[in-house]
């Protein structure tokens, strides 16, 4: 029920690949997001909008998520062990986002194929944090490839890692941490202090998964017709160019494997942020590069799942 098993990982990934995130199904991350927003408003009314309030927001969100998941599984275990196992698989499924990442990014690329830049910009705004209103075709493709690379770690490999280590409760704890970072972990006037604890905890939770994602991308690159050698070289050379201590690893590895250049400056909330580039422009940043990034994402996902299954099988 609480402990990870090979069957849990396999079933969760299979459900994700077959069904993605059905829009009609309530998703735990939506509830976590509402919990975060409710707490933030409450703490700000109390004047707790500094480091202390941010630490309280971070700790309570993760603790309440863990408590809710553990309590649900415990209650279901009392009713029926089989029901508890099924619920564990369903909770693990909600932690993964491979098909959803593919689906949402493919909508952007489909709009580009129709030469509908307005639709591509609007669809892109749903999956990236940068401003999209004035992006040209190449900038849109760059953003799509970057988000597939980054979210291969945040949305797939990292949850699989924590599901392997700590089961469905651990997977949901990671999703709570990641949701906190995506909502309040910004370096701006509003969240610089209140979001500090959430951002640092997210950095810690992704420390190993981000590097594992890059390694898996390099290792599986030949299986999808891409360059492992160049991926390793660019990963080692450019991972420190990203402002995040973790995101630079999968993005640099993906840039090298694909033979494209990622990174560079973008506008966020109307403010231009100039960032170093990742990779060399050996190949054009086009739709073929996006499709290569998707193949790479799936290859790394399957490899991580097999590693997790093997690890848990040995422990049994």
Overall structural class, as computed from helix and strand content, comes to mainly alpha
Average per-residue pLDDT, rounded, comes to 95
Radius of gyration: 19 Å
Strand order of the largest sheet: 1-4
Task: Summarize the main sheet.
Answer: 2 strands, antiparallel
Q: Give the strand content.
A: under 5%
Report the uncertain regions. Answer: none
The helix tally amounts to 12
Global morphology: globular
Beta strands, count: 4
Which bin fits the share of residues in helices? over 70%
Element pattern in H and E: HHHHHHHHHHHEEEEH
Number of domains: 1
N-end to C-end Cα span:
15 Å
Subcellular location: Cell membrane
Pfam families: CobD_Cbib
InterPro entries: Cobalamin_biosynth_CobD/CbiB
Membrane topology: Multi-pass membrane protein
List the helices and strands and how they pair.
Blueprint: H1 6-19, H2 28-45, H3 51-79, H4 81-94, H5 98-113, H6 117-124, H7 137-184, H8 196-205, H9 207-220, H10 228-238, H11 248-258, E1 262-263, E2 266-268, E3 271-273, E4 277-278, H12 287-315
Antiparallel strand pairs: 1-4, 2-3
Helix pairs in contact: 1-4, 1-12, 2-3, 2-7, 3-4, 3-7, 3-8, 4-7, 5-6, 5-7, 6-7, 7-8, 7-9, 7-11, 7-12, 9-10, 9-11, 9-12, 10-11
